[in-house]
Amino acid sequence: MSKFSKFALNLVLIALCHLPPAMAAEGGTDASAPQAQVLSPGDIAAELKRLQTSQDRIKQQASAPDGKTRLDGLDDALQDLNTDVDKLTAALTPQLAQLQAQLDVLGPPPAPGTTPEAAAVARKRADLNTRKTQLDAAVKQAAESRDNIAHLNDQLDKLKRSRLKDQLALRSESILNPHFWAPLFDPADEDRRRFGAFLDQVVPMGQLAWQPGARTGTVLLLVFAALLWTLGRRLLERGVAWYCLTYLPATRLRRSALALGTALTTVVTTAIAVHMVFIAFTRLYEPPPDLEGLLSEMAKLMMTCALIAGLGRALLCTRHPSWRLPALADAVAIAMRPFPSILAGLLLVAGTLEQLNRTVDTSVPFTLLGRGLVSLVVVVVIGAALLRANRVRSELVAAGEQPEARATLAGLIHAAVTLATVISLGALLIGYITVARFLTYELVWFDIVLCSFYLLTQLTRDVCESLFAPQYASGRVIKQLFGVGDHHLEQTSTVLSGIGVSLLLVIAAIALMTGGFGTTPAELVDSVLRVLGGERLRSLNIMPDRILNAVIALTVGVWLLRSVRRWLDAEMLPKLGMDPGLRASLTTLFSNVGYVLLVLLALSLLGVRWENLAWIVSALSVGIGFGLQEIVKNFVSGLILLTERPVKVGDMVSIGGVEGDIRRINVRATEIQLGDRSTMIVPNSQLISQNVRNVTMSNSTQGVATLQLTFPLNTDPEEVRDLLLDAYRDNETILDVPAPSVTFNQLAPNGITLSVTGYVASPRVTGNTKSDLLFEILKRLRGANISLSMPQTLRVENFPVPGNEPIERAAS
């Protein structure tokens, strides 16, 4: 290219650079088109600063400590800010495109070593790059502002929901007040609008399912669902009953399996029927997310209600009273028969209304109305069931009939359910709707978990007993396969049954702690304490949910430990052939370790970190060094006694000249029962550090009854020997093997000493046996004119002194 051509090209580029931005855009613009607003860098910076200032002001208003800010106004302000950001972005985007077009016209800068471009072109390129960088930064800042506004909008939504929970947790109108029922007859305009918008989503689903081309399929699916839920359920129950009676052994397993089958058939048929109905209305329609969420929650609610009805029919079993699992009188079971189905049906209706309120996001009065209806339904049905059952039991007692025997745990559960029902009714009457809702939902969930746990526990025990019973085929196969005896089968059944019940108990405890549905305990306590100043409590690291979880875990854990200890002591360990002493040692050791682990678990649930307990450990070390060393020494000695077992419960020991039977080995001291039925408390450290005579440590059940008698020198020792042996042989407590024996112990000036020894069945009867033998031996000695030697008295008589009276002196 010639120099003239290069010069002309540079002139053209300079002319293009000095054109207005709108005319320099690629392809040009229509003269009649409106011109985009061109913002200067100062205007852009000022607008961005205004947007940031508005966001900061909204944040400050939302976090006001008085909590009286109108969140709706802040929501509108955020919407306006979002609109301003969109306008700014829309204004900056064309300018950025124009600058990029101008840069494209200029082209890339010349490579090094080539002819340099004109100075004006270089300055223009640098200016365009600077302006483009500024616009890029402004667009990026606008995008960040949009993200911040979206995040702030989410925080406002959470704050609105939190305030809604606070409003719901506070006292509202009573159910006796007409204002409480007003939203049902005259809903607010906002609720009407939201229900109308939601109805606009539901109506197309019904219209598509009922259109001429799909009507037949919808009707067939609905009819199939109805038949399956009614006739199909009955046929399936009869099939389960036939299978249980035909193939299961004639044990209690039939009852528990039939009860489980009844509950499962109700749930399974309901699940299939609900799925058929869902297919009938959604096969031609894609539900929106809100409607799909409502349908999903309704399906869960239907499964819950089906489980309630199924468990009620399975446990009451009014058609076959002999198959009933719980010990209920027939009259009581018949009286309570309709209540599970009534509760399930009413809970389905009221729960659907509450789920609808949650989906539509209704106002506080309408939400309280839904919660109050659910609580009122549960309270009325459960209260009516309790009253009717109590009335029937009273009628049975008045008629002279004995109602069912009730265990202590069953009585406590009945009292707790009654108390919860009364408190819920009182909360509804005084206006604490959310408290009543929480109690009623937890009450329903507690009943579901308790009935399921009872049913599965009975099934687990019956399965283990039937599977390992030697009189049935399964037990005989196990005996032949493993070569074990009947006793080992019984032990295996007990162990597996205990493991299964323990696992079920842990699962039930976890289910009760986590909650089934409705407001959780943590949400309720957090809502109430937030109103009462919960942030201050949180600043002190006092978390209500942690405290509640720790208390529940501690309560359930103590009850679980005691239940397992009773099971070990009464069922498992005796069937393993362990002696009472070993059983007591193992159960005590299990309790001590269990309580330590339970305390650690409670501390962890409270949020205690072990690295923060260094000062506590230091304080304890100082306390142990000064005042707690004896307690720690006795505690460690108690662990040694339980593990090494130099003495155990049931042993007969002698320590410090006192002899008695060990009754209990505690953490600090051991209880020894003496012969006079009194109890001596001995610190455990003495049993470790002192000499202790353990009469029964060698597991020998025999005792020794030994007597030493001294006879005069002129006594025939052989005659006395025969007499003593006859007396021992005639005594019923003296054992024949080993045979009694007589030993010539000593020949002294004052007589001969014979020792006679015999064995008895237990060391504890040695004292009584010696007493009986002494009575009998003295009687026989008198009959044979044989006397025992007595201390000799020597009389020394001195000759009288002349002139004095004789004086006698006795010396012994």
Describe the model.
The chain is α+β, with helices and mostly antiparallel strands. The protein folds into five domains: 3-169, Methane Monooxygenase Hydroxylase, Chain G, domain 1 (Up-down Bundle), CATH 1.20.58; 189-485, no CATH class; 520-608, no CATH class; 611-644 and 655-688, no CATH class; 703-795, Alpha-Beta Plaits (2-Layer Sandwich). The protein is 68% helix and 7% strand. The chain is built from 26 helices and ten strands. It has helices spanning 3-17, 21-24, 41-62, 71-106, 119-169, 178-185, 189-209, 215-247, 253-282, 289-316, 330-336, 338-360, 364-398, 408-430, 433-467, 473-482, 486-514, 521-531, 534-539, 544-575, 580-605, 614-626, 629-644, 684-689, 717-730, 766-783; strands at residues 652-655, 658-665, 669-674, 679-683, 693-694, 703-711, 741-748, 751-760, 795-797, 808-810. The strands form three sheets. A five-stranded antiparallel β-sheet has the order 4-3-2-1-5. A three-stranded antiparallel β-sheet has the order 6-8-7. Helix 22 packs across helix 23. The longest helix has 51 residues, at 119-169. The termini are far apart.
Strand-helix topology:
Blueprint (H helix, E strand, L loop, with lengths): L2 H15 L3 H4 L16 H22 L8 H36 L12 H51 L8 H8 L3 H21 L5 H33 L5 H30 L6 H28 L13 H7 L1 H23 L3 H35 L9 H23 L2 H35 L5 H10 L3 H29 L6 H11 L2 H6 L4 H32 L4 H26 L8 H13 L2 H16 L7 E4 L2 E8 L3 E6 L4 E5 H6 L3 E2 L8 E9 L5 H14 L10 E8 L2 E10 L5 H18 L11 E3 L10 E3 L2
Antiparallel strand pairs: 1-2, 1-5, 2-3, 3-4, 6-8, 7-8, 9-10
Helix pairs in contact: 3-4, 3-5, 4-5, 5-18, 6-13, 8-9, 9-10, 9-15, 10-12, 10-15, 11-13, 12-13, 13-14, 13-15, 14-15, 15-17, 17-20, 18-20, 20-21, 21-23, 22-23, 25-26
Pfam family, one: MS_channel_3rd
Main location: membrane
Membrane topology: Multi-pass membrane protein
